[in-house]
Specification:
Order of helices and strands: HHHHEEEEEEEEEEHHEHHEEEEEEHH
Mean pLDDT: 94
Shape: globular
Largest sheet: 7 strands, antiparallel
Number of helices: 10
CATH superfamily of the largest domain: Naphthalene 1,2-dioxygenase Alpha Subunit, Chain A, domain 1
CATH architecture of the largest domain: Alpha-Beta Complex
Structural class: alpha+beta
Radius of gyration: 22 Å
Length: about 375
């Protein structure tokens, strides 16, 4: 990386009171974004999709992680595989939109054909009039697999193939869900927000800290700031609040909640007694992030149509409040005032500081030079 970025991050990692936030370069610099791709989004378990969105054999879902095209495919045994989304012939991106590819995945350029386990089956006329050519082994030239793990409905990949075992990696988060019967957890709605004009980290940081809740969400939530507390548990970061049933207010978020994340991009909220919400944040570039939210019930609960619509509206409104703030945070990073990252509350934003330090430490260890 450039000496400038390295110096800026080294200065950030030095203790100060109160602590400074990540400098603006971390949110709007293309070199920083590229290094994040080669470190944070390559070396860790990255959340990429929902298993329930791949219903039938042949269902394929393309995603882009660290600027690399990846495809998730369900095979004939109802297992989800992940591959680099590139034909081995001329490196064409194979799947360009979510769809069912049938029993085989066929490249539209020259019809090289793969089965749903990524094995190369047909190379039409590759050797001229013959389909085979000397010195080319089909069995060694299938789609290149990507390491994958599915935790309940949530799909994670590790591009470098050297992250710890997923259950070990995610243990700091998983322990908060040991009392849940996941056989009764069902997706009931998906909210697709498309592209948000903000860096992925600002969405993560906004979710992690409770400081903003009573100011930004004063019309959609009833969760007093003073009742919140932060959670800093290794790579599981977030906040929580414990409320009594008497505190519930119809039409707003007013229940005991856990706002948890798993580094780098997994967000899961638990809302007692019977709801979970999971965010999929997929970075597009340094200034854009795609976001979806899936709403789950946790106790086999059945929601009436009116209840579900009310729930969807509540969460849509909450997210839109957050998006407006995060987009303005991104705009603020263009000011010289943001050069040193502003300040972080030592009480309410210690979890944000931990997240930012993990980002900085990952990036600063990059062996590449720019």
């Amino acid at each position: 990386m450039s000496k400038k970025i390295k110096t800026i991050l080294s200065d950030f990692l030095e203790d100060s009171v109160p602590a400074h936030g990540l400098p603006a370069v971390a949110y709007n610099d293309s070199d920083f974004w590229e290094i994040e791709g080669q470190t944070i989004f390559t070396q860790n378990w990255v959340f990429v999709g929902f298993a329930h969105s791949l219903e039938k054999p042949g269902d394929a879902l393309p995603v882009t992680i660290a600027d690399q095209p990846i495809v998730l495919i369900k095979n004939s045994n109802n297992e989800i595989n992940a591959f680099h989304n590139v034909c081995r012939h001329r490196c064409l991106k194979l799947v360009d939109e979510p769809k069912n590819v049938g029993a085989m995945l066929c490249c539209p350029y020259h019809s090289w054909t793969y089965n749903l386990d990524g094995e190369l089956c047909v190379t039409p006329f590759f050797g001229g009039k013959d389909h085979q050519t000397k010195g080319f082994d089909l069995s060694k030239n299938g789609l290149k697999p990507v390491r994958i793990n599915i935790w309940h409905d949530w799909i994670f990949i590790n591009l470098s193939d050297d992250a710890p075992d997923f259950m070990q990696y995610a243990a700091p988060l998983i322990k908060y869900f040991e009392d849940i019967n996941f056989e009764q957890v069902e997706p009931v709605a998906t909210l697709d927000f498309g592209n948000i004009k903000t860096n992925w980290k600002l969405l993560m940081e906004n979710y992690i800290e409770p400081y903003h809740v009573q100011f930004v969400h004063n019309e959609t939530t009833n969760q007093p700031l003073q009742d919140h507390y932060t959670i800093v548990d290794d790579i599981c970061l977030g906040s929580a609040i414990d409320l009594d049933e008497k505190d519930r207010v119809d039409g707003s978020l007013s229940v005991s909640s856990r706002y948890l994340t798993l580094f780098p991009n997994f967000i899961i909220g638990r809302y007692f007694p019977d709801q979970i919400g999971v965010h999929l944040n997929l970075p597009v570039d340094s200034g854009q992030t795609q976001q979806k939210r899936v709403i789950y019930t946790t106790e086999g609960q059945t929601l009436a149509k009116e209840e579900l619509e009310s729930l969807k509206k509540l969460w849509w409104d909450v997210h839109k409040e957050d998006h407006a703030i995060c987009e303005r945070l991104q705009l603020g990073r263009s000011s010289p005032i943001a050069k040193k990252g502003g300040f972080l509350s030592p009480y309410w934003e210690d979890s944000v500081l931990k997240f930012q330090k993990m980002v900085a430490e990952a990036v600063i260890k990059s062996p590449n030079n720019y």
